[in-house]
């Protein structure tokens, strides 16, 4: 964004939130994704695990394309360079990489619980069967799952979250984004076989899960210095352990419960910190000024 654009943004209220750009981003993300999913629903197509067509995967790229378009429009080359840098930001403290791969730890706990209960463990092949992807082996399916997660996270956490946090607290931004994120999934409820089988109460559970996941991802994104890569890793691994053919029964229940507990604990800690006047638990960690444009809006001037 030019220096003039920054002055206009400040004049609109001083918060730095470009409401028009954010609305355009959400509208474009919905339009791009729904333009793929709605025709599938209208044609009564059903996306199934381990089957490559029909597929909903192109719809997952809508948020990323919207983020690229709106970033180029509002911030130009500096914004695009910053977005690209955050997409590949991997040099972060080890503890945040451990958070990023925590869904695999939850998977291990779930498998231990299944074994202790005397339940049969899922086969490795079950982890290679994901909605809308062909049975191309575990590595290939993992790559496709990560690509879909990156398509979502480039938009949700790469663009929308930092923009929302210009005006709202990290917790409020997380919950606002959770509502939008849930709404974005709506056409998939008529397309993806596993969603079509949901009872009404399961949609409530899905929203609660998305809300908790949104809080966890805000925490990871902010504390990793704005790494889109890390939140995409978390998102992709969560889909791998929680949405493949293996994710049924005790395994699905344990993984989902642990994710929700993680989110609730962060919410409780955040509310407590706010009441006591302490720094936000979910808020951004200190990052060198040169590493993030968000810390220095004037750096976007051109």
Write a structural description.
- The chain has helices spanning 3-11, 19-42, 62-87, 94-100, 102-116, 138-164, 170-184, 193-196, 200-223, 228-242, 249-275.
- The chain is globular.
- The longest helix has 27 residues, at 138-164.
- With 302 residues, the protein is mostly helical.
- 41% of the residues are buried.
- The model is unreliable at 1-14 and 287-302 (pLDDT under 50).
- The N and C termini lie close together (7 Å).
- It has 11 helices and no strands.
- The protein has one domain.
**Envelope shape:** globular
How many structural units, i.e. domains? 1
Count the strands?
Answer: 0
Largest sheet: none
Portion in helices: 55-70%
Gyration radius from CA atoms, angstroms: 19 Å
Query: Which residues form runs of ≥5 with pLDDT under 50?
Result: 1-14, 287-302
Percentage of residues in DSSP E strands: under 5%
Average pLDDT, to the nearest integer? 89
Summed up, the helix count is 11
Q: Which structural category do the helix and sheet elements fall into?
A: mainly alpha
Please trace the helix and strand order, writing H or E for each element. Answer: HHHHHHHHHHH
Cα distance spanning the termini: 7 Å
